[in-house]
Design brief:
The structure is a single chain. With 206 residues, the chain is α/β, with parallel strands linked by helices. It has helices at residues 2-8, 24-31, 88-100, 102-119, 122-187, and strands at 13-14, 36-39, 54-56, 61-63, 71-72, 75-76, 82-84, 188-192, 199-202. A three-stranded parallel sheet has the order 1-2-3. A two-stranded antiparallel sheet has the order 4-7. The protein has a two-stranded antiparallel sheet with strand order 5-6. A hairpin with a 2-residue loop joins strand 5 (71-72) and strand 6 (75-76). The longest helix is centred in the last third of the chain and has 66 residues, at 122-187. It starts with a helix and ends with a strand.
């Protein structure tokens, strides 16, 4: 509530940044009915348009960081990054225009507020996200089908390998048991069953 009260005390909102990933403060100001003076660049362009905001024209870009920051051991290890170059002359002209055109500011602010509440409610954003996910799934469906078949083949090969290994282990155990039986058979010397029992006498090992 305090944030909103502070916002609505002003007549417009100014944020001449070089660029924004999204620009939440700008959106909040517009939702409060304040026209926003911001550069028409980067993530801001998703919701800042002429007619319900006051965009700064971006005609040039400038290097975001000194070029030496992007070099290590004499080699460039990252692509150079550029952002919007702010035209301070145009910015001053827009500020002057805002001070001289208060009634028009109210109209622009109202249109911006309506645009924010029409296009960026939680429900609307959720629907857009779900729709985009569905689009991505449709785009990737052929690749997913190829992946599914390959994965099934891998699982089949893995199961087959496990079966072969299991059979091999079983056969090895069986062969070992048969060898032990053969050794015992070779050592049997006498079987006496005269007293109702079974007596097995083994020959001495060589």
């Amino acid at each position: 509530k305090q944030w909103y009260q502070r916002r609505v005390r002003g007549f417009f909102f100014v944020l001449p940044s070089h660029g924004e990933g999204w620009g939440r403060p700008i959106m909040e100001a517009m939702a409060a009915g304040l026209p926003a003076i911001v550069p028409l660049w980067s993530g801001i362009t998703e919701f800042v348009q002429q007619g319900y905001s006051i965009p700064l024209t971006v005609n040039e870009l400038e290097l975001a960081f000194p070029e030496e920051f992007w070099y290590l051991g004499g080699k460039r290890y990252k692509p150079l990054h550029y952002w919007a170059s702010i035209n301070t002359t145009e910015l001053g002209e827009l500020l002057t225009w805002c001070h001289l055109n208060r009634p028009k500011l109210e109209e622009i602010g109202l249109r911006g507020k309506e645009a924010m509440f029409a296009g960026f409610t939680r429900e609307k954003v959720a629907r857009d996200v779900v729709a985009r996910i569905d689009e991505i799934k449709a785009e990737l469906q052929p690749e997913l089908e190829v992946w599914r078949r390959r994965n099934e083949q891998k699982i089949k090969m893995r199961d087959e390998e496990r079966r072969r290994q299991r059979d091999k282990n079983f056969q090895g155990s069986l062969d070992h048991l048969q060898e032990q039986i053969k050794v015992l058979e070779d050592r049997i010397k006498e079987i006496d069953t005269g007293d109702g029992g079974v007596k097995v006498t083994l020959a001495e090992k060589d």
